[in-house]
Amino acid sequence: MQNAATPLSDQNLQLEIPSDNLSVRQALGKVLSLTLSAEEKSVVEIVLAEVLNNIVEHAYQEKPTGRIDLSVDQSDTGLRVQVQDEGLPLPADLPNAPVEHNLTCEVSDLPEGGFGWLLVRELTEELQYERRDGRNILSFRIPKPEDEQA
Amino acid sequence: MQLTYQDGPEARVITVDNSRLDAAIAIKFKDQMRDMTSDGPQRVVVDMTKVDFIDSSGLGAIVAAMKQVPEGRSFELAALSKTVGKVFALTRMDSVFTIHDNVDAALDGGLANAS
Predict the structure, then answer these.
(1) B11 pLDDT band (50/70/90 cuts)?
(2) ipTM (interface predicted TM)
(3) Which CATH architecture has domain B3-113?
(4) Which of B4, B26, B74, B94 is the residue whose CA sits 20 to 30 A from A69?
């Protein structure tokens, strides 16, 4: 059993996370302890919470025995993130399909779900999903806020 | 999940006492909101000052809470944090809800609009 948290350096992180909500929340805390601006932290928290919750809820169907591998690398252009799991595959094209809610409807018809992928797509770049050898591999970049780019 | 409310002359102000509005409390939020918005003043302002973080489930719960408000009553939000505001903007839910900078502004607006 490898160590659950192996810090490569101050600004990189590799975590092996059990697929339960408490572990996911703890992992999120570790990522947020990286040196990030307040703006980056808020984006990272939104994106990773959605991605990891989706894995717990949908890929592993709330079974706490699954494993999630998360790697976060800081670069000049932002955070490169890769998330892997061995759960059920994502519905075809979900990460890439545009979700456009029609909000000019009656209040009673407003959508109550489907916001998760919308947020992930809006806040990330180079979002890629691959199903390989029974694993889901999702990778993306969280760009540095424009006013902080060197 | 902790919601409390106070009735004033113009509105019922419901305060959310959780720092995170997420899947863990979404259903309770919706249920408590149903109780608190079914009677009392016609205008409801939800004070979100203490909420630092919201995820898609929490956003869904707020939309659900608004949808279950009886007709003729309002359901307005006040004091969204930067992160919460970002989630509303990215999902364009900021165009669906009446959002006030803070509770005072919401209540002043209520007086001005009452004429």
Answers:
(1) very high
(2) 0.84
(3) 2-Layer Sandwich (3.30)
(4) B26
